[in-house]
Specification:
This protein has twelve helices and eight strands. With 299 residues, the protein is α/β, with parallel strands linked by helices. The chain has one domain: Ribokinase (UDP-N-acetylmuramoyl-L-alanine:D-glutamate ligase, 3-Layer(aba) Sandwich), CATH 3.40.1190.20. The N terminus is likely disordered.
Length: 299
């Protein structure tokens, strides 16, 4: 992953040209007052997260639970991994935010996800849907579509997942994207308008839209794609930001910046994917205001 603290109306938004502009912001000379303002807003969200320590309920996949829990703890949140249908409604209602990830989906987990999401909506708890591999099978599509109609605050996925969920072509093999993030912008806007939500498309450039406004972020490292569950952990971090930032679009953008900058920081210190995984958790924990102001690339 490599999107803005303010929701800017882009009109004829060109993802590829914006990507080139953002990727060119590699040195301090490119940092302007707007970038610094945006970075300070991200820092305020991270600071609130660290002080509030919100309870984040994660109904997530088996592959992602360890990294997700550790990354949330490093960011300052308090994760709870409750999956049983007998308790998810109670936990979701008491949480500050909910993250639902369909990565390792089966019948019982699908039922628990539906119960948790419904309870969150009824209790006014913000929640995020991560439609992992939604284009791979009709079962995943059915569950993801059903969940998307339960008023998620945010839907986050890669380009193929967002395109598939918007009922266009996209597919993908497994959980991997087969198209670039900017190729899914129309699908993301359509999905956001249809579901009344914020949609984040993550990739080499990340995009966030509410169906009308669009922002982009160019922070991140290629190493993030070499470690499983980084995207899943990002979804949980976004849910955590929803707990302390009332505007879902701003919360989503801030989470993407935090993870992206941390990914760059970690990649500088890691020698391979194994060490990168540990370095990423450390980077989230150590992230400070000066690092954000220097590194953020938002457009």
């Amino acid at each position: 992953m490599r999107d803005s603290c303010e929701s800017n109306n882009r009109g004829a938004f060109t993802g590829r040209s914006t990507a080139a502009t953002l990727l060119g912001m590699a040195d301090d000379s490119m940092i302007d007052d707007n970038q610094e303002t945006e970075a300070l807003a991200v820092w305020q969200t991270l600071s609130r997260l660290r002080s509030a320590r919100p309870l984040v309920h994660c109904v997530t996949n088996a592959v992602a639970m360890d990294l997700t829990a550790n990354l949330l703890l490093a960011a300052g949140a308090s994760p709870v991994m409750a999956h049983a249908k007998e308790e998810v409604e109670e936990v979701a209602s008491a949480a500050a935010a909910l993250c639902i990830n369909i990565g390792t989906l089966d019948g019982p987990s699908a039922e628990a996800m539906y119960l948790a999401a419904k309870a969150a909506v009824e209790s006014g708890v913000p929640w995020l849907l991560d439609p992992v591999g939604v284009g791979a099978t009709s079962f995943r599509r059915e569950i993801a579509e059903r969940l998307s109609h339960l008023q998620p605050s945010v839907i986050r996925g890669n380009a193929s997942e967002i395109t598939a969920l918007s009922q266009e072509t996209g597919g993908g093999h497994g959980v991997d994207a087969t198209i670039e993030s900017w190729d899914a912008l129309d699908a993301a806007q359509d999905l956001a308008r249809k579901c009344g939500t914020v949609v984040a498309v993550t990739g080499s450039i990340d995009y966030v839209t509410n169906g009308h406004d669009m922002t982009a972020i160019a922070n991140g490292s290629e190493m993030m794609g070499r470690v499983t569950a980084v995207g899943c952990a990002l979804s949980a971090l976004t849910a955590a930001c929803l707990a302390v930032q009332e505007d879902p679009m701003r919360a989503t953008v801030h989470a993407l910046v935090i993870m992206g900058v941390a990914g760059e920081f970690a990649a500088e210190r890691a020698v391979a994917p194994g060490s990168f995984r540990s370095a990423l958790v450390d980077a989230i924990y150590l992230l400070d205001e000066a690092t954000l102001v220097k590194a953020v690339r938002i457009g």
